[in-house]
Write a structure and sequence with these properties.
Layout (H helix, E strand, L loop, with lengths): L1 H27 L1 H11 L6 H126 L3 E9 L11 E10 L2 E7 L5 H18 L5 E5 L5 H10 L1 E4 L6 H7 L1
Parallel strand pairs: 3-4, 4-5
Antiparallel strand pairs: 1-2, 2-3
Helix pairs in contact: 1-2, 4-5
Length: 281
């Protein structure tokens, strides 16, 4: 047991002594240094090969560095381009935002103007509606007043003309003009309404009886009423009318046709059958 321990201690002592003396031997003894290097060559690469490998490694590192630098510069260039594009987009976006804000402002202004115009239009529409209603009401009142005035004017004109015809004919033509009035007790003339007064103008010349009606205007109803009055007169008085005459400035076309069918002579703004009437006189 003691021999291995002693041997280990001896080996350890030898290593320490070798590490202590080896550097001095390599430095001072060239022959020993050469032999030592020759002894260690199998364990280490040669200097030339090591330098070549190192140079190759440096070249590869240089190439990688240059490639990395190139790629880095390219990345920086692209980044700068992207930044410029982004800045341009931001600039355009800001311009568009300003334009949009301006358009929105103008749209708000136009909306306010449109609302004001709509409000004024509604006010004008209401005023126009009120004015229209007032005009309609005024027109109705005027129509009623004009109708009443026309009726009164027509009645007065008929009476004035009747009186003028009566005076002229009696004075210059030696004919007799009479106003005939009779009560229709049976309602034969006025559609079943008894008690109405039937009025006619009678012109008598040499025993010939001419029944006339002088009106401001004549409708189909007026012609039928005149025809019933004549028949009422003939039946009640037992006399036959030689001529039936209507005198009016305004006669409806259908009323003219009906007069022709019933044999009634009409004097209006266009004389109808005037020659026949003159020959009868």
């Amino acid at each position: 047991m003691k021999k291995p321990e002693k041997k280990a201690k001896s080996s350890e002592s030898f290593k320490k002594a070798l590490f202590k003396t080896l550097p001095k031997l390599l430095e001072k003894d060239e022959s020993f240094r050469a032999q030592f290097i020759t002894f260690l060559k199998p364990y280490f690469a040669e200097k030339e090969k090591t330098e070549d490998r190192f140079n190759i490694l440096l070249e590869e590192i240089r190439i990688l560095r240059e490639e990395g630098e190139r790629r880095w510069q390219e990345a920086i260039r692209r980044l700068d381009e992207h930044l410029k594009i982004l800045q341009e987009h931001n600039k355009r976006l800001e311009e568009h935002s300003k334009i949009l804000q301006e358009q929105s402002r103008k749209l708000d202004e136009h909306s306010k103007i449109l609302e004001e115009q709509n409000r004024r239009l509604e006010e004008h529409s209401k005023k126009l509606e009120l004015l229209t209603q007032e005009l309609i009401s005024l027109r109705k009142r005027q129509d009623v007043q004009i109708g009443a005035l026309g009726a009164r004017w027509g009645l007065k004109t008929e009476r004035s003309f009747r009186n003028a015809v009566k005076g002229l004919m009696e004075e210059y033509l030696s004919v007799k003009v009479e106003r005939y009035e009779a009560i229709d007790y049976e309602g034969e003339v006025f559609d079943g309404r008894p008690g109405k007064v039937v009025e006619l103008n009678l012109i008598i010349e040499n025993g010939k009886l001419i029944v006339t009606a002088i009106k401001s205007s004549v409708s189909v109803g007026d012609v039928l009423l005149f025809e019933r009055k004549v028949k009422f007169f003939e039946k009640k008085e037992g006399k036959k009318a030689y001529k039936k005459v209507i005198i009016s400035p305004m006669v409806e076309p259908k009323a003219l046709e009906l007069c022709k069918e019933l044999g009634i002579v009409v004097y209006t703004d266009v004389p109808i059958w005037e020659e026949e009437f003159n020959e009868g006189l």
